[in-house]
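Thread: "does anyone have the structure for this chain?"

Original post by V.I.:
We have the sequence but no experimental structure in hand. Need at least a predicted one for the grant figures.
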Amino acid sequence: MSESFFFNAIRQLRRAVESAGEPLSILKSFEQVLSDPDIRFQFLIMLNSPAWIEPLAATGFFDGHPALSREENDMVLEAALRYLARMAPTAPRSVAYFATYIPITNPRRLSIAVETAIALPSRDGVMITNHIVVALLSGTGITRTDTLSTLIIRLCEQNQILPAMVLFRIVCELSDEDGTARPSRMDDYRLLQMLDKCAPAIAKVAAKDALNAMLVMLRKAVATKQHGKSDPLQISHTCGDQRLRSTHRIGPYDLAGSLVGPVRNAMESAIQSGSIELKAAMNLLDEQPYLIFKRLRIHILNTFADQEPAVARETLLNRDLFDDHRFKHEYARFIDNRFNLLNAESRQTILSWIEAGPDLAKFRELFASNIGRIPNDQEEERRIEYWKYEKLWWIRHHLTGSWAATFVEMQKKYGEPQMADLNVRMSGAFGRESPVDAEELKGKDVNGVVRFLKKWVPPSTTLGKLLAEVLEMRSTLRSPLLRASLRPMQCSFVIYTRSTSKH
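Reply from O.Q.:
Generated one for you, tokens below.
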């Protein structure tokens, strides 16, 4: 087909469309021309009237042309679906009906179908949603999680709970514990984005089903981290330490840890809205085997303790939780927030545990393993005192009398404890921070810098930038002594950071 023929055909079709002639007659008169895939594609793009919907269906535009290749038909059917999406506000019933004619076989078409379903009224949107479900079950991938989340939320708002829940369950499907791969519909990053957006909404209207789907998903993700461990309570005890109380950060290396945030948010949303009672939510968590669910249970009970004060008191007085380092993060925050629920006798029980001190057996074992000898009396005394200080730190806002005075003395001695309510603390340096003070570098001559650099392995670009600022690099690097002493990596590193620090 020549270029002139193509543009001439497009001009004729545009005039025919703008003439407001009868659509079916126009289609029949241009039947031969419209057999070309490029012209067919451009023709569908120019249509802006719902009057064309039924004539297009009658002439096979939504079925694919038998003379076209698979790639050509894909292009044309995508344009046909986009046309129907544009017509959704003006002809919702026809759009919903005929959109199901077009098979959803790739992510682009799926995205268009989702956008169309969002634009339609409740009953019509459900019709296309069913079509979307079939595509997802067939393994069609997802690229636009934002629109799929919006569709689930819209279905919830329209009280179309069943189709919303079906979509949500498909999204939540992960691999089984036996390692069977889950359908490749979206990567973990998009999955977490989607859950962040729509999980709280669906948990408000279908709490038990939605939460159970998410808990099963988290269980399966944690199961992949077993590494041969047979005791479920030993699996992933550091999973989601900060994510139980703050916005999670998506980590593709740790799907289980990243899922904790959306699960927590959905559960809090469901309980807060009254869609599920606290006790029922805790029962769902009790059905799951791994440690992270036990920790989530403490977190949820802490957040909504006023709904079940008796259960909260019982949990606070659980000596095993008090002593178990695996629950330290959640229990420490729990007892700080809810110590006021305890009566005087129960508070004294907690304080008596602190007064009695720790069981030193584990400490002695670890000390001997790490140091190669048993701890002496002074080391054991320090362990006992610091253990008591960490426990008192948990309830520092509630201490009175001699206990408050004891805590103040310990605080003066030790400062703020770094690990009182954490098992793992992560930190890092970036930007213009340096492991070497500027004054220290200024006090060194060239020989001193050489001696320092011989022993130094650069951890980051920050030290190089500091060197570039403190030393006159252009003149100093001319020093034969300095050049000869710098290892090749160090020399190029310092020169590079000097050049980049100018920009």
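V.I.: this helps a lot. The chain has 28 helices and no strands.
O.Q.: and Residues 65 and 102 are 12 Å apart (CA to CA).
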